[in-house]
Amino acid sequence: MITEFSFANKLLQVAKGLATYVVPTNWYLSRSGRGGSTNDAGYCYCVWLRHLRTLEKFGWNPVQKKICELGPGNSIGVGIAALLSGAESYTGLDAVPYSTVEQKAQITKIINDLTLLFQKRAPIPQPEQYPQIVPQLEDYSFPSWILAEVDSLANLTATKTSLIEGLDGPERNPRLKYLAPYQHIDLSGYSRSYDAIFSQAVFEHIGNPTQTYHLIFDLLKPGGLSWHVIDFRSHGLSADWNGHWTYPEWLWSLVVGHRQFFLNRIPLSAHLALATQAGFEVEGVMTYAEGEHQTLAKKSRLNPTQFAKPFDRMSREDASTVSGMIFLKKPAAEGETETSHCGLN
Ligand SMILES: C[S@@+](CC[C@H](N)C(=O)[O-])C[C@H]1O[C@@H](n2cnc3c(N)ncnc32)[C@H](O)[C@@H]1O
Q: Measuring from atom 27 of ligand 1, which residue has the nearest CA?
């Protein structure tokens, strides 16, 4: 039964892949892989504060940090939340320009909405509200230490005002930069300039993750921290969360079709290996296993013996990891001072 269904489903996915050669790419971008929304302050607040909570164990705080996000999509509010919690600057680097100057009204609204959530010290949204978001937490209360660090309400209002005043388009604001598509921009001037680089639901889509881990390594200051939430699920391609690993390479290339980015199907251990090869030290890994968090994925009916090569040789841990958050550190070069407050010594 599963076999018949999965055969029909594979044909459907191949047909969709082939359609990408005739339907404009923008049509797909407007419908898939976009995460949250510029209008959804709750999503952006949820993502940023959940990240901050998980970073507590490293003693890391965002105050006066230069922060960069890879692949903000249309959730630039995550970066605005970082600024409201004391970051000195935020740069969003995306392969696709989702945020545009024309969105000034929307971005102003999200700045206002996010400021209100911080002012109210609203609790972090729970899985009932955003069931798919990782990390999930034990404690969803507002992390009051953030506002203590940024000198509370006065600073929030000042930050809000300066962000709105600087909004001739996010790329014109010195504290809020947005570079997309960054592959067409010379980033050599940004080398060793960020205290932290993070991403949410991006690394599973990146076509050349080797190059990207090297890029973020280069952009980070020595001692800088990088963390990434990676979603290993099939993104709706199959009834079971791990069905994408059953496609042989030749069939998968038809499914991908002409799409600029899709799913790279790389499991957790391969990400850690690539990050290590780029020079990172792995400081921590949080994993979410199938069946453990019902909102993320039920236990699959497929097992690795049904996966295509080379996925059939996957470790048991990789094969059951639905989602993960990895914490990487760029070592401080010999004789150099670490970036301040990294807290990872
Ligand atoms: C699923 S969306 C996630 C968006 C956002 N982080 C969120 O949580 O809503 C994936 C994002 O990754 C971006 N992306 C894909 N390939 C990329 C690359 N090589 N470098 C940077 N961003 C990339 C896409 O343009 C898109 O914005």
A: 73
Task: Enumerate long-range contacts of 124-133, CB under 8 Å, 24 or more apart.
Answer: 124/45, 124/46, 124/49, 124/50, 124/53, 125/42, 125/45, 125/46, 127/293, 127/295, 129/42, 129/46, 130/42, 130/43, 130/46, 131/295, 131/296, 132/295, 132/296, 133/43, 133/46, 133/47, 133/50
Closest residue CA from atom 11 of ligand 1: 71
Tell how far the Cα of 93 is from the centroid of ligand 1, in angstroms. Answer: 9
Q: Please state the pTM of the whole predicted model.
A: 0.91
Q: What residue segments make up the domains of the chain, in order of their start?
A: 7-311
Ligand 1 binding pocket (C-beta < 6 A) is 33-36, 47, 70-73, 75, 93-96, 98, 200-202, 205-206, 212, 261
Sheet of strand 220-231: strand arrangement: 176-179, 89-93, 66-70, 194-200, 220-231, 321-329, 281-289
Are the C-beta atoms of 56 and 143 separated by less than 8 Å? yes
- 345 residues of the chain, pLDDT tens digit each: 456 567 788 888 888 888 887 776 554 554 444 444 557 999 999 999 999 999 999 999 999 999 999 999 989 999 999 999 999 999 999 998 887 656 788 889 999 999 999 999 999 999 999 999 999 999 999 998 887 766 666 788 888 888 888 887 555 678 899 899 999 999 999 999 999 999 999 999 999 999 999 999 999 999 999 999 999 999 989 999 999 999 999 999 998 998 888 999 999 999 999 999 999 999 999 999 999 887 899 999 998 999 999 999 999 999 999 999 999 999 997 666 555 443 332
Q: Identify the residue whose C-alpha is closest to ligand 1 atom 3.
A: 35
- The CATH architecture annotation of domain 7-311 reads 3-Layer(aba) Sandwich (3.40)
Beta-bridge partner residues of 69: 92, 198
- What HEC string does 171-184 produce? HHCCCEEEECCHHH
